[in-house]
């Protein structure tokens, strides 16, 4: 199979799966915006906390994705089963440990984040329900990366499709009280999210044990578990720290926006961010496919092929990012207008998306080459650069432009732009250096 065909076979289902995930987020925010702007902003705040917590599970999931892909390339079935069994059990334990505090103290944590009383009215129930069931997300994430790393991206797409259709239907019923159901607003979104995630988890594990790895693999849970966990952490912890740094920095920015710029800018950020997800949708799909392709190629000791895959996939993604950036620049106001008719929100949102149009090509460098480096086992360099660039340019720089110079929400986005381009170009240079070629764990 040619490299381009393999990319399409892997990336197309990931694209659709990610699109469905984004549409779900847009549907949640859109339906809530029709119910109450503050409810939409509250769910955005709660989801930022939940996204941070999901990164705890990403420590194991990121390591699992790389180790499984490399061992698929090396055709090492026993090691695949060892890694899979340990990762599932570990993430279940982590999921329970994270879910319990959200169930009992979620409201207190949101207060510490700076969520205002008006937003808290809608956010408290959401964080308790969705946060209290985060162990389901931990299990689902682990199953998905094992399935996907074997090349079964179509199957994870179909699972996501079913979950999202059920979720959107549940949202409509419980937000607006259709078919005689109670009008629950943000609480309804939380219930629909949790039920659909539970069913998706059941389907994912049914497929996993029938088609990918045998359920008997858990007999390997005590077969060198310390070595497996060490390898998972060696890859997963730095990879998760890079994502965690980004997510935590965004949480800090959200708090700064709320405190320094007010609720209008805060709600605008929620709408703008949900649109920005679509701008880098192609890059996310190609990046995840690139990680699988490079992981398998490195596992099979085809280093030159892995290098060319990274460059070729980046060129494709970069061209696509230019096109999506142009759409944001020309039609940003119209896109924000989908959510609200508030002229102030539309004006701020349009200016913010105009800045994002120039940010997206820089983000593509990061998404493709970080995934490529991760697939090869090179995870320390990206996290070091993340710690420096995200906080220096993204947070401090964004605050300088937004608050000190007075450019408001678009000023924060300009700080993000500097971060993505500076960090992204450093990832490109790292890939070109080929220092990642001796980082494989198989």
Structural class: mainly alpha
Helix content: over 70%
Based on DSSP secondary structure assignment, what is the total number of beta strands?
Answer: 0
The total domain count is 1
The number of helical runs is 14
Specify Rg, calculated over alpha carbons. 21 Å
> Taking all residues together, what is the mean pLDDT?
90
Low-confidence stretches: none
Largest sheet: none
Q: What global shape is seen? A: globular
Please report the distance between the alpha carbons of the first and last residues. 23 Å
> What percent strand?
under 5%
SSE order: HHHHHHHHHHHHHH
List the helices and strands and how they pair.
Elements lengths: L2 H33 L1 H38 L2 H36 L4 H16 L1 H16 L3 H24 L9 H27 L12 H37 L1 H17 L1 H19 L3 H34 L6 H34 L3 H25 L4 H25 L9
Outline the structure in words:
By secondary structure, the protein is mostly helical. The protein has one domain. 86% of the residues lie in helices and 0% in strands. The protein is built from 14 helices and no strands. It has helices at 3-35, 37-74, 77-112, 117-132, 134-149, 153-176, 186-212, 225-261, 263-279, 281-299, 303-336, 343-376, 380-404, 409-433. 57% of the residues are buried.
What attributes does this structure have?
14 helices; 86% helix; 442 residues; mainly alpha
Offer a quick outline of the entry:
By secondary structure, the protein is mostly helical.
